[in-house]
Amino acid sequence: MRKQNRRLFIVRLKFQKQSALKFVSRTIPLQAEGMIPRRLGRNLGIGLAPGFIPVIKTGVICLFFALILSCGYGFAPKGDYVDKRIQNIYVEAFDNKTSQAGIENYVRTAFINQILQNSRFKTVASVEAADAIIKGSVINISTSPLSYRANTLVAEERATVIVAINFREKESGKTIWSSKNLSSYVDYTMANNINMFPAARKNALIKLSNDMAEKAFNMMMAGF
Q: CATH topology for 88-222?
């Protein structure tokens, strides 16, 4: 069997300091037509035909992206971005610039719950006891139908909320983090009874408030 001038590129991932990834590539001549290198074959205990090489390459690529996703984005910010002196946070009453009564309370409660779940900070009951203050305003809320039932009643809806958030130091007034138009949405199913629509929307808005508070709080803690 004639030897072909083919090369198999093998990519290794090496973890360097500070969790950086370096790509180190080298070339290994194939020993014969349709076979992987002898040394590599002995290590694996198998010999692969040419048709299997793309499968190996695909597997390496998938593994690479899995490592990137797990190493780069699988984290929950713990507040290292925020000055260590800031321990106690007060969440002020949110303004409500919409016609949806109570939405400001859902959002404020959701932020308080986020602080309670974070060991880095404590929530306090007054501005006087706080090191930093979270202040916000619900700017807009809208609902739109996604699907209808045969009787023309709405079957699914989407609610979208836009809020403005400011996280600042109490003494200096310095803004630690802010967003003027943080938006989020939730899709939900409506009951087949128009009298149950308000309850369905309320539950959806509470969930939306919790999701938005978690998103905003993580951004605050990471400084994004």
A: Double Stranded RNA Binding Domain (3.30.160)
